[in-house]
Design a protein that fits this description.
The chain has 275 residues and is an alpha/beta fold. Helix content is 49%, strand content 19%. It contains ten helices and twelve strands. A five-stranded parallel sheet has the order 2-1-3-6-7, sandwiched between helices. The radius of gyration is 23 Å and the shape is globular. The N and C termini lie far apart (53 Å).
């Protein structure tokens, strides 16, 4: 996992611990201890990811957001001791990749960063289908998911979604509840009748938080429910959770299938030996 990463933190001890953890993954790491130093290194080099402390001796880390492109901002992993929810929400909505609180142990932060980078590498093999009749919502979801390196497919209605679903292997569906023609519930009922889609996670999206609607979609096979407008962090956490669970289920099924095949071959071998 040879990523080129810039770590910006004025604490030499903390900076070094993060750097050591990244070196363990095989990353190339450059260190900076101030905004001025970070600016020079960003201008000089291309980084795959930037780990940024928000409190620096010569200014606020957020100042960098105004100087970087959207693509560069999407590579930022924020570190801060500030637990203010509104600021956290604002930072996430700025388009950063991830946000970690420094109120936990350094070991936990290093572990979380390592897991994030491993998941991003995994995500290059993950296909997500967005089915929503609003082009605005589809673009918003793509913008949120893009930094995590998922492969995103989109459909403007249920029928197009069914067609795309049958042409590719997917690990998650984000599905709008209210659509003209085939609505989200009809789509859900149709795909859950097929064995190959039975375990595929579906997160239902709706502008309404009506409890009857939520209960109905969950009882009919949806894995989760999200109300529009989305909280970016919640959406990403739920996507990661359901993808992880789905992949674990598929891994268990593959192992069980291999065991069954091994037992079958063993039985055939013993049967042949007996003759």
């Amino acid at each position: 996992m040879q990523y080129n990463i810039l770590v910006i933190d004025d604490s030499k001890t903390f900076n070094q611990k993060i750097t050591d953890g990244l070196h363990f993954l095989g990353c190339i790491v450059t260190q900076a201890y101030s905004l001025e130093e970070a600016r020079k290194k960003i201008q000089k080099d291309q980084f795959d990811y930037i780990i940024l402390d928000l409190v620096l001796p010569d200014g606020d880390g957020e100042e960098l957001f105004e100087e970087l492109t959207k693509e560069q901002i999407s590579k930022i992993i924020v570190l801060t001791g500030d637990s203010d929810y509104q600021r956290r929400s604002y930072i996430f909505n700025s388009g950063v990749l991830e946000y970690f609180s420094k109120t936990v142990s350094t070991q936990k932060i290093v572990s979380d960063i390592q897991l994030l980078l491993k998941n991003i590498r995994r995500n290059k093999e993950i296909n997500i289908l967005i089915v929503d009749d609003s082009s605005f919502i589809r673009q918003m979801l793509k913008k949120i998911l893009k930094p995590k390196k998922f492969n995103i497919y989109e459909a403007k209605d249920g029928l197009e979604g069914i067609d795309i679903l049958n042409q590719n292997d997917f690990q998650l569906i984000l599905l709008d509840y209210e659509m003209s023609g085939m609505d989200g519930l009809d789509f859900l009922l149709k795909i859950k009748k097929e064995q190959k889609f039975f375990e595929l996670p579906v997160i239902m999206l709706s502008g309404s938080a009506n409890q009857d609607i939520i209960a109905k979609v969950l009882k009919n096979g949806a894995s989760d429910f999200l109300k529009k407008p989305f909280v970016t962090e919640e959406l990403l956490l739920k996507c990661d959770l359901h993808i992880k669970n789905y992949l674990n289920i598929q891994l268990i099924k593959e192992k069980e299938q291999k065991i069954q095949e091994t037992q079958k071959h063993k039985s055939m071998f013993l049967a042949n030996m007996s003759h």
